[in-house]
Design goal:
With 331 residues, the protein is α/β, with parallel strands linked by helices. Helix content is 34%, strand content 24%. Helix 3 packs across helix 4. Oxa(dethia)-CoA (UT7) binds next to helix 2, helix 6 and helix 8.
Amino acid sequence: MTKRATISAVAHYLPERILTNAELEKTVDTNDEWIRSRTGIAERRVVAEDEATSHMGINSARQIIEKTGIDVAEIDAIIVGTVTPDMFFPSTAALIQDAIGATNAWAFDLNAACSGFIFSLETAAGLIASEKHQKILVVGGDTMTSVLDYEDRTTCILFGDGAGAVLLEPTDGEDGIIDSIMFTDGSGGKRLFMPGGGSRHPATRETVDQRLHYLKQDGREVYKSAVRGMADAAETILSRNGLSGKDLKLFIPHQANKRIIDASAEKLGLSEEQVLINIERVANTTAGTIPIGLSEAVADERLEEGDLLLLSAFGAGFTWGATLIRWGQCQ
Ligand code: UT7
């Protein structure tokens, strides 16, 4: 019997600046009606000029430290799910570790795109199970506006900036992460990627001229795979635990497209109250969507001790998965 991990605190940070569909209409060939009806998005947040992914992670981490009153020296590890680190290295996790003064924590980034938070949570749960770690800060966040091509209407309207974090600790109770299921299918890599700036196409004047430093997506293919992946992962995890959709208090899916969320919720037979949707205000923040959703759910008192919660994500890689949690005492 290994130690089970539970979420004992959660927080999130959204930048102040709001970018509305109406503003995007002025710069790219799109319109509010198309964006709302095809994606469910009305507005998204954009970082200030002096902000990057670490700032949003640091803010979330500081809120957790403040509300729990933990000594930062007790944090054993920091894992940051992100595809938009401040820079390639050092990791954003190292930047956060330094900023909050978590001198006893080892820290690293995890690249799994929109599944970054649930993959990081799974990794952290494994470290807790090893009984070598007592307190792990798991952050998910992205500054997607730093990799968006604002001349490409098919992608620039979809994403926003934001981050969230949780504190993961061991539990002896019935609460915590009950089960999880994670997948990768690298053959989907060419459907959603950022070709430039890495070792394949290091940044040069040419790569910038060719706009290789921006996110590229085959939206229709990703859409089909996302609906299938999220629903399959969620259904598998429920059925192998002898559960069905009606047992869930809340489903927090990755927020990429309201139509993907609705299709997944329908397959699981969920009612509106059982599904957290904030895409209208927040858009797709990649690794940020799930911790932001979780933090908003806690703030809105949508979760009580004993409730069953299901998280599910799908993203570049392709990566996808689901995490089943029995909610415990969480600040
Ligand atoms: O989080 C990572 C995972 N990402 C996802 O899960 C995203 C998955 N994909 C999607 O959410 C959807 O595929 C999109 C929202 C990206 C696109 O929606 P769609 O219903 O699949 O539209 P489409 O790509 O089939 O395009 C339909 C039409 C096209 O015009 P034509 O060829 O029919 O004349 C597009 O050029 O809509 C056009 N279009 C737009 N029109 C106005 C595409 N983007 C826009 C836009 N404004 N922003």
